[in-house]
Amino acid sequence: KRILEMDKELKIFIKVWVSAMISVSYCYYLSTRIKTGVLRSLSIIPVCALFFVLPLFSSSKIFVSVTAFCLPGLANLKLILFAFDQGPLYPLPTNLTRFICFTCLPIKLQQNPKSQNLFPKWIFGIKVATYGVLLKVYCNNHNLPR
């Protein structure tokens, strides 16, 4: 029964994010052909309204929190700034994939990339192992004492 609920929640999560990607694609293709300012912001307002509603479709706390942080929290602010040619989406990223990532995820384009400090590969291994342990604990939290 619990697996079926999680399967249903995962399907809803995927539908929500596919809807978000389609909406951001609309902003990329249509809004760039509209003059900057009020007209572009009017074309983006329905997407912003949709982003406030999308997290409410799920009942899983983790999916709601991730979606609520990324869509109404980040994407709306970035799209509103984009309507006036400001913020991290200006200048327009070169392709749609970058536009979607920069809009929906908490990443920022570096204008002048500095020399990157490369972490040793074992740190990545520790992060993956930690994530695996946390995921295992989350999936089996019904076995933990209250």
Automatic annotation (TrEMBL):
Q: Which domain of life is it from?
A: Eukaryota
The Gene Ontology biological process annotation of the record reads: lipid metabolic process
PANTHER family documented for this protein: LONG-CHAIN-ALCOHOL O-FATTY-ACYLTRANSFERASE 3-RELATED (PTHR31595:SF70)
InterPro entries in the record = Wax_synthase (IPR044851)
Full protein name = Putative long-chain-alcohol O-fatty-acyltransferase 4
Where do the TM regions start and end? 12-31, 37-57, 62-84, 122-139
MF (Gene Ontology): O-acyltransferase activity
Question: Which keywords does the record carry?
Answer: Acyltransferase, Membrane, Transferase, Transmembrane, Transmembrane helix
Q: Does the keyword Transmembrane helix apply?
A: yes
Q: Does the keyword Glycoprotein apply?
A: no
